[in-house]
Amino acid sequence: MKYPEIPTHYIHEAIRDASQRLKSFKKLKKKGLAKTNKLMIRRWSVGCDNQLWKLSFEGVRLATHDSWINIPLYFHKLFWRCYNGGWTLRSSARWKLVGSKLYL
After folding, report:
1. Which of 39, 46, 48, 84 is 20 to 30 A away from residue 8, measured at CA?
2. Which residues contact 37 (CB under 8 A, 6 or more apart)?
């Protein structure tokens, strides 16, 4: 294995994401709607299934190769309105790092 320190769930999500992007590109190219002849990735994000992340009121805990790291979150008013209204969280999360900010 090339990266033994990375949890296998991250590798699985990366492969799944790449195959979805390729399938979508092939479909657009077949219809003549693709902007380029080659697949280009402009924006990236990381997907996590429910075994790789946990949400608490202190923040998000993400699994790494040796432990869990805690990333503090500050919830806005709309989140609390939806959460108290009976909405439930998804079992998977998609996040991306832009500069020093984490978007969940």
Report:
1. 39
2. 29
